[in-house]
Amino acid sequence: MDLLNKLLEKSPYSRLILVTVLALTLIALNLYFRESSNDRAIAGWESALQQRKQSVELSLLSLPIADPSLLVCIRRAAADRANIHPRNSGGIDDVRELQMLYCRREGISSLSGIEALSSLRFLDISDNGITSLQALRGHPALETLHAADNPIDSVSVLGSLPLLKEVILPDLPGEDCVRISGTLKGVRSNASKIACAGGVPGATNTDSTVQLAPRTKPKRNNKELSDSQHQEMLKYERETLYQKR
């Protein structure tokens, strides 16, 4: 200490140099600890993301889906949602948290087991080989169902969906038109455009039934979705569905 005091007394600049060195040392230490803290935070988030992916994978193993093509579609959708960073909204930690499922033209023949996805609000199963919608009976959250171009034999189950707001159906030549109209009363649908037994059902409830434009069956040699259609689908999902979580 005496030596330090003597050095400071001999040179008028020594004190300034010492203060400068101490200040720079403190700044360097602060930057070091801050960077270390950021590194730990990043590592923590990455660990959380990996845990999320593993959790979703485990939940898929217990999902009672019988149709392999449906399972592939669900697995793909779950992987997309599991890959969303925990800091952002829209991610899932369990496949049963899926709110939107797009399974158009997947070669699906059965929906058995889909009732386990009790959070689904939007389901597109258009252009498959599905004959029955019974697996959706009493689904508590489903709001929108696209089921065009499937050999469905009955739509009576749709009357058991408490939150159903919109449905697109294929032709139902084996179904009674009056029964279809009664089942879909108050639901946005293409019912007046489909073929059914006894003619085309009329718009008997015009105040609550809004007719949708009919969809044409896509050609098999076309892409499944154009880039613009794909972007529109993602925009719909992001802005309409997952903002309400």
Fold and architecture overview:
- The protein is of the alpha/beta class and about 240 residues long.
- It has a domain at about 45-170 and about 215-245: Leucine-rich repeat, LRR (right-handed beta-alpha superhelix).
- It is built from five helices and seven strands, in the order H-H-H-E-E-E-E-E-H-E-E-H.
- The longest helix is centred in the first third of the chain and has 48 residues, at about 15-60.
Which key terms come to mind for this protein?
245 residues; alpha/beta; Leucine-rich repeat, LRR (right-handed beta-alpha superhelix); five-stranded parallel beta sheet; two-stranded parallel ribbon; 5 helices; 7 strands; 38% helix; 9% strand
Strand tally, please?
7
Distance between the termini: 65 Å
**What is the CATH C-level name of the domain at 43-170 and 215-244?**
Alpha Beta
SSE sequence, one letter per element = HHHEEEEEHEEH
What is the overall number of helices?
A: 5
Helix content: 25-40%
Q: What would the CATH topology of the domain at 43-170 and 215-244 be?
A: Leucine-rich repeat, LRR (right-handed beta-alpha superhelix)
Q: Could you tell me the radius of gyration in angstroms?
A: 30 Å
State mean pLDDT (0 to 100 scale): 78
Uncertain stretches:
202-223
What's the architecture of the domain at 43-170 and 215-244, going by CATH? Alpha-Beta Horseshoe
Beta-strand portion reads 5-15%
Instruction: Give a short account of the largest sheet.
Output: 5 strands, parallel
Q: Name the overall outline.
A: elongated
Strand order of the largest sheet: 1-2-3-4-6
Q: Supply the helix-strand structural class.
A: alpha/beta
